[in-house]
């Protein structure tokens, strides 16, 4: 396989993962949007989420590179298992109906906690991508962009739709990660 095809395949994989991880920000954004939110707060919250979607996978990728050095050839299977567990947890959480409750997103602490809660999955995926030596700059740019974009979309859409759509969004994102995990294991 030539190098251009490998880069295109890596880009497509990272793009799909970025959208899948953004689904969490989207689904929780719908919940907050339903409560009513000002445009200024949407931009502030989405910017912080985008920043966390850069920082968390970056830390995860560095940790993954370290783990990859320790695990060697077992790294692919370990990364696949990690994605299966993460995807399964996202699906389970959406079915169970877990979400951030009574969080004041307008305070500095509330914004930080909300951004962390929707970005924590990015750290785990970053570990996996670090094991595969994924393109660092491309990964954090895609994750940051889609984390911010999906949160804006969720917050804006939350003003207009029912709460049920949010759970399906997180379940869909979890299913994508779960499928990638199975592919890495096989």
Task: Give structural notes.
The protein is an all-alpha fold. The chain has one domain (10-185). Helix content is 84%, strand content 0%. It is built from 6 helices and no strands. The chain is globular and about 50 Å long. The two termini are 20 Å apart. The model has no long low-confidence stretch (mean pLDDT 80).
The number of domains: 1
pLDDT < 50 stretches: none
Q: Alpha-carbon distance between the termini?
A: 20 Å
Instruction: Look at the helices and sheets and give the structural class.
Output: mainly alpha
Count of separate DSSP helical elements? 6
Helical fraction: over 70%
InterPro entries: Mntp/YtaF (IPR003810), Put_MntP (IPR022929)
Function: Probably functions as a manganese efflux pump.
Membrane topology: Multi-pass membrane protein
Protein name: Putative manganese efflux pump MntP
């Amino acid at each position: 396989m030539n190098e251009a095809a490998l880069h295109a395949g890596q880009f497509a994989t990272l793009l799909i993962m970025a959208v899948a991880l953004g689904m969490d920000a989207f689904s929780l954004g719908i919940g907050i949007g339903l409560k009513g939110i000002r445009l200024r707060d949407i931009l502030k919250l989405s910017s912080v989420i985008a920043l966390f979607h850069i920082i968390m996978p970056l830390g995860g990728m560095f940790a993954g590179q370290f783990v990859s050095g320790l695990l060697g050839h077992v790294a692919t299977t370990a990364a696949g298992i990690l994605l299966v567990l993460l995807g399964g947890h996202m699906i389970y959480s959406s079915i169970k109906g877990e979400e951030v409750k009574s969080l004041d997103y307008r305070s500095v602490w509330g914004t930080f906690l909300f951004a962390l809660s929707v970005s924590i999955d990015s750290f785990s995926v970053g570990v996996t991508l670090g094991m595969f030596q994924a393109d660092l700059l491309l990964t954090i740019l895609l994750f940051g962009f889609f984390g911010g974009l999906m949160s804006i979309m969720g917050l804006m859409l939350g003003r207009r739709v029912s709460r049920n759509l949010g759970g399906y969004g997180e379940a869909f994102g979890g299913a994508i990660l779960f499928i990638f995990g199975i592919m890495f294991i096989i």
